[in-house]
Amino acid sequence: MSRAFLSPSPTADIISTVEFNHTGELLATGDKGGRVVIFQREPESKNAPHSQGEYDVYSTFQSHEPEFDYLKSLEIEEKINKIKWLPQQNAAHSLLSTNDKTIKLWKITERDKRPEGYNLKDEEGKLKDLSTVTSLQVPVLKPMDLMVEVSPRRVFANGHTYHINSISVNSDCETYMSADDLRINLWHLAITDRSFSILSCHSPA
């Protein structure tokens, strides 16, 4: 089988969707190459009080890869169709991103401290010989350069026959809807292997 569909597209950097989070502090963009770039609003400074509208790159990650449906002999593009932020419930941020067929849930966290002074591990993280441990110490947190970590939490697939064109998060923060041209599905964020069809239209003859 030809692997031409895996070749980078010259239009991969073209933005296909944008979405602010609920506070406007973060702006997520998706492109035709399957990447999500998150921008963070710069805080207003005393020297430049009107510069609050400027955004800098906060994090970049690959959300979707090109796939091939062997049963239908159909290429599935990696292009991000929609992004939706979930309401923030703790220090972490969460968002949904989708291409034509697969919806993914991502968690974005910050880390600016690292623990040091483990009792059973050395500085490289390897376990110490227990016979050499003669005293106990309390680990401490030391400052470090800010690190933004993005981790996949859920993958919601096989819910649509046609291309997904919209997703919407419910106010209960537990469910969301996804839609294609003929179908609307209701998903629970904790359940990936099934969804409920709340609207289904017949395909035109």
How would you explain this protein's 3D organization?
This protein has no helices and 14 strands. It has one domain (15-42, 53-200): 7 Propeller (Methylamine Dehydrogenase, Chain H). With 205 residues, it is mostly beta strands. Residues 1-7 have low confidence and may be disordered. The strands form four sheets. The chain has a four-stranded antiparallel beta sheet with strand order 1-2-3-4, with no helix packed on it. The protein has a four-stranded antiparallel beta sheet with strand order 7-8-9-10, with no helix packed on it. This is Serine/threonine-protein phosphatase 2A 55 kDa regulatory subunit B. One of its GO terms (molecular function) is protein phosphatase regulator activity. It comes from Camelus dromedarius. One of its GO terms (cellular component) is protein phosphatase type 2A complex.
Q: How does the helix and strand content classify structurally?
A: mainly beta
Low-confidence parts lasting 5 or more residues at pLDDT below 50?
Answer: 1-7
Query: Which percent bin holds the helix content?
Result: under 10%
CATH architecture: 7 Propeller
Helix tally equals: 0
* The CATH class: Mainly Beta
Q: What is the strand content? A: over 45%
**What is the averaged pLDDT score?**
86
What does the largest sheet look like? 4 strands, antiparallel
Record the strand order, biggest sheet.
1-2-3-4
Number of strands: 14
CATH topology: Methylamine Dehydrogenase, Chain H
Q: Provide the succession of SSEs.
A: EEEEEEEEEEEEEE
Q: What oligomeric arrangement do these chains adopt? A: single chain
Shape: globular
Distance between the termini: 32 Å
Please tell me the total number of domains: 1
CATH superfamily: YVTN repeat-like/Quinoprotein amine dehydrogenase
